[in-house]
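Person: I have long wanted to understand how a fold can be written as tokens. Underneath my words sits a plain record pairing an amino acid chain with its backbone structure tokens. Those tokens are not coordinates but codes from a learned vocabulary of shapes. I should like you to check that the lines agree and flag anything odd. The protein I mean follows directly.
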Amino acid sequence: MQITPLLRALRAFPQPLRLAANALALGCALLIAPTMAAADVYPSKPISMVVPFPAGGATDAAARLVATHLGQVLGQPIAVDNVAGAGGAIAAQKTLRSAPDGYTILAGTVNDVVLAPITNPSAGYTFDNFTPIGAIGSTAFVMVANPKLPAQNIDELLAYVRKNPGKVNVGIPGVGTLQHVAASMLEQQAKLSWTTVPYKGAAPLNADLLGGQIDAAVVTLPSAVPYIKEGKFRSLGLMSQQRDEVNKDIATINEGREIKGFSTEAWLGLFAPAKLSPALGQKLNGALLQALAKPEVREGLGKLGFRTGVADTPTQFRQLIERDDARFRKATAGLKLDR
């Protein structure tokens, strides 16, 4: 906003009106100047990126990859702060307690931003308490099993569960997560029941699945791909309508005889507290898009199972979040998510 030309134009008005207009213009300038100045100098110190899962999982790996390159674009290092627990709600709450100055951002997922407030009203926030900056990417879930489980695909798993009631346990990376919702929806659609075992993130879940402490799990494709390729996990099916563009050898559960029309997808994106200034939001979004445009970032995210270009602008990202909020409020009604 150019204040000087505006003041020149106001000199043609009668003096009383001119004085009032001058005061208004000056007030606008005083309000705008600090915001513009803050955006111009941002960032002047290191930034903290809160990740709602333990170190070692695919979400953490993707967040760290983006943090490195986003920090290079912004000219300041970005430190990853892993804060696990309560389906990501603890990380979300920590972010919301921070100042809306762009120095604390959340590498948020559908779990902590959308599902945690729906499944746990005591979380004390909704997605409206955040400023969406932009999506990093999205990925589907995959049902995996320890190779010792006598099931080669989703049909064999469902048949085995029915023949062995109460014996099969399925791990999830937290109560109320989208993985939890997906496991419960699959139980409901298949008209059976297994024992659901919640963990605090993908890393400890994967460790127990590798060790045989649990039989199967619902995890993000990125966290499972390395183990599937090494033969340490057996894929029972991607929880998607289509196969992944990179990992085309992994079949979907919809390719079996019994399950049809089943699909879940999880996104990862950046958020700040709700009162972040529009100027800082635009600067962060622009920097994120620059980081995601780097070939090494796109390739790295692709290898982790993330599809980019999901919602580049804050407006597009907010629309995606609003759709998921409505979708999962409907999907979770009647599901047992207390175990």
User: Anything to note?
Assistant: The first helix runs from residue 3 to 10. The first strand starts at residue 47 and ends at 51.
